[in-house]
Amino acid sequence: MADWINTIIQGILIGGLYAMFAVGLALIFGVMKLVNIAHGDLIVLSAYVALIVTQSLGLNPLVSLVFVVPIMGLIGYILQRGLFNRTIGNDLLPPLLVSFGLSVIIQNGLLELFSADNRRLLAGPIEVATIKFSDAINVGVLPLLQFVLAVLVIGGLQALMFRTAIGRSFRAVSDDPRIAQLMGLNNRHIFGLAMALSLAVVALAGVLLAIRANFDPATGPTRLIFGFEAVIIGGLSSFWGTLVGGVILGVVQAIAATIDPGLQILAGHLAFLLVLAFRPQGLFGRVA
Amino acid sequence: MLDAPLLKVRQLEAFYGDFQALYGLDLELKTGQVVAIVGANGAGKSTLLNSIAGLMATRPEAIELAGERIGGKAPYQIVAQGIALVPEGRRLFPSLSVEENLVIGGHMKRPGPWKLARIYELFPTLAERRHHPATALSGGQQQMVAIGRALMSNPRVLLCDELSLGLAPIVVRDIYAHLRAIIADGVAAIIVEQDIQQALKIAGHLYCMLEGRIVLHGAARSLTRESIAAAYFGV
Lengths: 288, 235
Prior knowledge:
The complex is a heterodimer of chains A (288) and B (235). Chain A is an all-alpha fold and 288 residues long. Chain A is built from 11 helices and 2 strands. Chain B has a single domain, classed as P-loop containing nucleotide triphosphate hydrolases (Rossmann fold), CATH 3.40.50. A 6-stranded mixed β-sheet of chain B has the order 6-7-8-3-9-10, sandwiched between helices. In chain B, strands 2-1-4-5 form a 4-stranded antiparallel β-sheet, covered by helices on one side. The longest helix of chain B has 16 residues, at 169-184. Chain B starts with 6 loop residues before the first strand and ends with a helix. Classes of the chains: A mainly alpha (288), B alpha/beta (235).
């Protein structure tokens, strides 16, 4: 029994990380209908940025977030103004293809610079620290921290979206970009801010992931797929839905792994497929 | 200087791809003046307003506001200069509440008399529904939000595109009564309207468009019903 509880807790906590991958995707798709195929590679890129920062400044990876988050935000803004804005229009396909191209470029650029070696960010004792809830139930401090941060990020984004001027602008531009300009909104700038925000979240998720698991230049697409699945399960129009989507994905994977480790990834994909088949708008999505 | 036009349109042309929608259009609007533009469907009335608002590509010298060339500027720059458009079909933001729709209209924070409280004073029914989604309102109320949203930018020139579209006649009368109150406040306006009677009642000056050209213009009271009808249908 305790084993099961442990497994489910592990699944829930990893789900927070998936939700962090997902919420950046959902934000970008919501504001500018951009399906960012490079999202996973940007997660990996932020891990490498953190690697440079931690090695050159001798910082703990968690402290390096102070630099990595703004750097990735800035990269996001520049990427949007310099690249994606040129592709955005009535057609969904050009931005999608360009993001696919970007994905290939990031992977190969990282391979060129850092080689194909596995890396990991070393965070010290916190990596193995656990909190003991009972004799049989232990929870890792790091996974718990990830989950709490995910909840804070999603809650923060939700508040930003519905309670602030910039969130109002995001929603207006998403509703009707042509008319939004008549309000005095510069869509290109708004899109830039949305991408900056998305990559700031990516930076956080990327660093947390890189403390927890090895990364190399080719790991991006697998991160992307978990993010995508969490978004689709939760429903595109809801940030909290991405958290639920991430948790469902995490729990299904964790349970499957205890049955047979080989089933872990497949079971997650099957859960995603079931949702797609029976509730294509996602659990919390509005019917369009 | 007082008599110099606030808004001057000179030899304005507009294109949708290869299709030319406007041919060398001239138009003037003085401070406090109301100009009506009438014409059949497809005459280019909306294209004219969209060009002034910056939604269409134009040559810099084609549009001047208070002596400054604004043609070809981005819409967000033009609203900052004091031109606001109430678009055809209202086009409210469905994800935003009534109040958010109004507030976002004031995004540029141009100084002036129009603030949220004053919009609610003008349209008290909107104050009651301020937290409703904008698209949950009736057509007439939505039109009030669209007008209020434009006013929130404290425009010098208000462009209104077919305020009566899809509204019951009694609602149209109400909307125009409100518009009269707004104009009395000193804002200049260009009103595009299919309903000639409505247009003549509010405007001092009338332009009639046909196939992308101005075919008739003059002081509203100097134009006869017959001459307008002839210009309207191009006979």
